[in-house]
């Protein structure tokens, strides 16, 4: 069982969780419940559960300071449940618990998916160049398939409001910055001014994942170019689908340009398609002509910087679980600088000035 940071967090209460699952799961539990912390994530604590016969994954919000409206377990559960059987592979949603008396926060269970992670340079280096190319194109295909789903056909027609989505997002993440910042950074105001002036019109509304990257998919163990599930839907909503394209490109590093400090040059490994190839594949899959996407990439860099700042603040207060947090505090500034650099060389005059 994984423990929370000493002095700040209680351990995952297996007795309370076991009692709750015995009473709510069909068939109850086959035996004593065991749990282990799944590493790799920096946001929502994620646990692997087993009763000796079945295995599940439990997701809950972070401990301590949580940004308003973030880490919504019901939202994540709702969207993976709705997408079951669609063109987008998702885990099976098993149980949602909104009673905070059980574990101190809402949480949900999904079935454990047998897949291979490819979210780090070390993991991707184990693939052949051909497999890496196939994986990159599969990510673009999967994202296009998600965006082509009519929300009404999967019961998500009231899952969000595409009209005004980008304006609300910009204001939301500006507020999140103010709630999370550990230091004053003048470039934030500059970025917000540029993004506000150049705000695009939403042309392609649909289901938005919100955090599209290789670290949020699992691939087949037999065929690493086949995605078997898409994870981490906590920011999903209805909105401008090109916001997802911006996130995907933010995590898709370009040789010779500053890398995203999270992916650390992952997509520059031999074989991975270029950003231009990803965009061409995505647009072809959807049958659309893409407009200029610089705004979406700049906004993505800013949004990720805010998320990293929030995680760094929680880590400094001893409110994170697991490993991999020591370098987070140093990620905010490079992301902000990268966003400014792209804005100043963009073809969009409102972003440049």
From TrEMBL:
This is Phosphotransferase family protein. Residues 35-259 form the Aminoglycoside phosphotransferase domain. InterPro entries: ACAD10-like, ACAD10_11_N, Aminoglycoside_PTrfase, Kinase-like_dom_sf. It comes from Rhodococcus zopfii. Transmembrane segments: none annotated. It holds the Pfam family APH.
């Amino acid at each position: 069982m994984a423990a929370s940071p000493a002095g700040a967090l209680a351990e995952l209460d297996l007795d309370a969780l076991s009692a709750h699952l015995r009473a709510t799961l069909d068939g109850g539990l086959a035996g004593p419940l065991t749990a282990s912390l799944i590493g790799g994530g920096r946001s929502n604590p994620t646990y692997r559960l087993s009763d000796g016969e079945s295995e599940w994954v439990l997701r809950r919000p972070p401990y301590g300071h949580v940004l308003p409206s973030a880490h919504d377990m019901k939202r994540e559960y709702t969207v993976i449940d709705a997408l079951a059987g669609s063109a987008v592979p998702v885990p099976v949603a098993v149980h949602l618990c909104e009673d905070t008396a059980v574990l101190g926060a809402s949480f949900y269970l999904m079935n454990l998916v047998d897949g291979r992670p490819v979210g780090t340079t070390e993991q991707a280096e184990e693939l052949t160049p051909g497999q890496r190319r196939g994986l990159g194109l599969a990510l673009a295909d999967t994202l296009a398939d998600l965006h082509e789903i009519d929300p009404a056909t999967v019961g998500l027609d009231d899952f969000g409001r595409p009209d005004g989505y980008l304006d609300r997002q910009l204001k939301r993440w500006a507020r999140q910055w103010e709630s999370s910042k550990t230091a004053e950074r003048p470039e934030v105001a500059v970025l917000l001014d540029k993004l506000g002036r150049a705000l695009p019109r939403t042309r392609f509304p649909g289901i938005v994942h919100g955090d599209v990257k290789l670290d949020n998919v699992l691939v087949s163990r037999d065929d690493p170019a086949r995605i078997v599930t898409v994870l981490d839907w906590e920011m999903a909503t209805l909105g401008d689908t090109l916001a997802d394209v911006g996130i995907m490109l933010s995590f898709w590093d370009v040789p010779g340009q500053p890398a995203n400090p999270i992916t650390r040059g992952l997509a520059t490994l031999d074989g991975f398609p270029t950003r231009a190839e990803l965009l061409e594949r995505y647009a072809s899959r959807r049958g659309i002509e893409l407009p200029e996407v610089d705004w979406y990439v700049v906004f993505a860099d800013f949004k990720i910087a805010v998320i990293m700042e929030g995680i760094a603040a929680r880590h400094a207060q001893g409110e994170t679980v697991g490993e991999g947090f020591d370098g987070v505090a140093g990620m905010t500034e490079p992301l902000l600088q990268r966003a400014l650099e792209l804005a100043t060389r963009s073809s969009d005059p409102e972003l440049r000035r």
